[in-house]
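Example record for the data management plan.
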Amino acid sequence: MEALSGMANLEQVLSKAKNLKLLILDVDGVLTDGRLFFDHQGNEYKCFHARDGHGVKLLRQSGVEVAVISGRKSASVALRMKQLGIELVYQGHENKLAALAEILDKLNIKAEQAAHVGDDLLDLPVMTRVGLAIAVNDANFAVKQHADCCTETNGGLGAVREVCDFIMQAQGSFPKVLDSYLQS
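Corresponding structural encoding:
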């Protein structure tokens, strides 16, 4: 099994991943590399990795829901999440705990059945309350210290795909996904 790095206790992280029903993602620094691009008219542009998007789709097909909580608002994020079929999109939420509570209530699940992938201090309140806290490789050092594990890939460059694959492997759904491509 492909494992995330920095796991002091692989069995404990696998156990947490097996019970997940929800993956919550930050945007800037997780789904993107964290850089912000603006044109001369103030239009914002973001770059998303195709493998992350495909991983999100596969994870959702395996039965794990995906949500996004971002401190910033961006039309490009709304468009990308719509393309991926993600309906639980919370933008402009600097208080990410309120969004977490609403998502858990909507899905009728407990915090320990959720994972969060973050990169900066704004993510810590959610990361410290969910069942599995994951930091991207290039996350702030304090975020890494509070994470159960870290990706080997930097944010925006396939880290989300790494997490999705890991969860599917832990839950035993990855072989079926792989077989569907090998049998094509």
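Summary line stored alongside the record: Residues 10-182 form a domain with the Rossmann fold fold (CATH 3.40.50.1000).
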